[in-house]
Amino acid sequence: MRARSWLAVILMLAAGAGAIIRRRLIAAPPPESFDQADVVLISHAHQDHLNPKTLARFTPGTIVLCPRPAAKYAAGLGLRVRVMRPGDELIFPGGAIVAVTAHHAGGRHSLKARSDGRALGYIIRGPRTTIYYSGDTEYFPGIAAIGSKYRPDIALLNVNAHLHSDDAVFAIAGLGMPRVVPMHLGAYDGKSSRLGPRWRAELVEALGSTVVPLEIGQSIPLPQPARDSAAHP
């Protein structure tokens, strides 16, 4: 991994790896999103999260972390593909990325949600901040376990047809009430695009400033101190 700030590791979250299976409603990520990424995190193999043509835009040698069903779609592109299971870690200067369980269908065309490691979320631990990226997931007891073990400061939470309204509130509470950036809203047309603004507004109404909706190009500052040093084993 190139010796840069640990923040370079999470640029892939802004870049995304989704196939255009519906009409795209926002602009494609800029080239520098691909050129500057150290690591690409793939949560599962569904086409809106994993497109080989998108992956091919990353610099050869970029590390790709993914669950097993996704690995074959990332192969042969000059990338360093590493299959992850819940609990597996990638250590980088200043921190680590840890794969965690999600409750979602993991296969390319599968629809039945399971908590079997075929779909993943990720914990990104830096020197002073811990970030949880949920991937697609339904609410399930494992979310509270993630909150208890890692105590994230920020949650990048996919708020969509799989997790919204009361379930999203329960998930945020289970995570220990970190600041939440709602994601997976408005990129493509479909149910999440139509209902996403309502789901996001419900979260803001229920949890106030805990929820930080971001538009394209906006950002939030990272917390300076870790919330609990015990959360960084």
What does this structure look like?
Strands 4-5-6-7-8-9 form a six-stranded mixed sheet, covered by helices on one side. A three-stranded parallel sheet has the order 1-2-3. The chain is globular. The two termini are 22 Å apart. The chain has one domain (6-213, 225-231): Metallo-beta-lactamase, Chain A (4-Layer Sandwich). Residues 2-21 and 226-233 have low confidence and may be disordered. The protein is 25% helix and 18% strand. The chain has helices at 11-15, 31-35, 52-55, 68-74, 141-150, 165-174, 191-207; strands at residues 39-41, 63-66, 80-83, 89-92, 95-101, 120-125, 130-133, 154-158, 179-183. 40% of the residues are buried. With 233 residues, it is an alpha/beta fold. β1 (39-41), α3 and β2 (63-66) form a beta-alpha-beta unit.
Structural class: alpha/beta
Number of strands: 9
Query: What CATH architecture would you give?
Result: 4-Layer Sandwich
What distance lies between the first and last C-alpha atoms, to the nearest angstrom?
22 Å
Rg? 16 Å
H/E element order: HHEHEHEEEEEHEHEH
Strand content: 15-25%
Q: Based on CA inertia axes, which overall geometry fits?
A: globular
In short:
The protein is an alpha/beta fold and 233 residues long.
What secondary-structure arrangement, pairings included, does this model have?
Blueprint: H1 11-15, H2 31-35, E1 39-41, H3 52-55, E2 63-66, H4 68-74, E3 80-83, E4 89-92, E5 95-101, E6 120-125, E7 130-133, H5 141-150, E8 154-158, H6 165-174, E9 179-183, H7 191-207
Parallel strand pairs: 1-2, 2-3, 7-8, 8-9
Antiparallel strand pairs: 4-5, 5-6, 6-7
